[in-house]
Design goal:
412 residues, alpha+beta, Beta-Lactamase, Alpha-Beta Plaits, 3 domains, 12 helices, 16 strands
Amino acid sequence: MRRNRGKQLLSIGPPRRRRSTERDWGHDTRVLEGIPDAVVAADADGRIVFVNARAEELFGYARAELLGQPVEMLWAERVRELYISNMEWFFATRGELQFTTEAYGLKADGSEFVGEMSWGIVDSSAGPILLAVGRDVSHRRTAETRLRAVAAISEHALAGADLVDLAAEAVELIHTSLPVTGVEVRLADRSVMASWGTVGARCMRLSIGVRDELVVSFHRDVGEDELSLVRNVADTLSAALDRRREENLVRHQAMHDPLTGLPNRALLRDRLDLALARSRRGRRPTGVMFIDLDNFKQINDTYGHATGDAVLIQVSWRLQEVVRTVDTVARLGGDEFVVVCEDMDQDLAVELGQRLREAVRSPVNVDGIEHESSASIGIALSFQDPQAVLADADVAVYRAKAQGGDRVELFC
């Protein structure tokens, strides 16, 4: 409740006078009965002398239960002392009517509410009275708080917040704002990104992203505004997940070959830099294997580019099956591939090169036609310069081709 000149509401105070009643100023109450908000009037002794029907509804008392009672019974206990002090001060100064956006009331069932209220001292035929006209805005305040919280999550999503943190924030908002027993953000693979409580068999499921879900269990029936909060949170998560997937797709496309899905030249260089850095620390060289198909142009010219593409895709699969999971297979373009292998020596590198050569030699079936191919493979080992080791492997592959292809050459 906002104070006037440092104070807030008002209450009773000396000098004592004959207690006024509704009958003493009954002709003044007709207008007050027609006001669409709750109206409570108290005399200088702080006793209730009038309430209208709206006040009965708001506080949960019959009119007869309120008349003659201390007005402080309608104030939340935690602010009661302050409001009494303010009321006494206001009667002493004859404060004019003013408006406050935050007054805390107490209902007959013991529940608190926050109200907006106009209040002040007015003259009546029975003397000055404290007149308070207000309404319960708890529901509106709650809705506004929820909207602000959803807006905050949306801002965090737009700012690129981590998806796990965003999901946790959404779960926290729902379980602190709504009557729920459990909340989960589940991804399409059924893993749980964030959760609270226990999700029961009877639950509300909202799609987020492509096949992900926001799952909520309520312990009572909820209103449309409460359901709206859940939908708004789901929409925010959905937009964030979709945007992150789009960003990941763009990043993936920028760093991968569109035909085979292998790392492209840019990602190869990043992987090679990291591998060489680890080689320097571990004192074991990184191997680079340059693979050039020997007769790919003939397949393209004879059967067309669609068949050539199908051959390249199958060759890329075979290369990945031969290497270790920590190794990188990349496509530079055309029929050229590069494999980066950490922790190598000459013998291991040549052995792996031979396995790669054999993988390429196996016929590739496209639309029922067997296509035979072979590869020239050049190998270089290094601890240092990525550009130099790629150039060395390139030199080695040309040596292999110069000797008829279908062979492995180690750069020395």
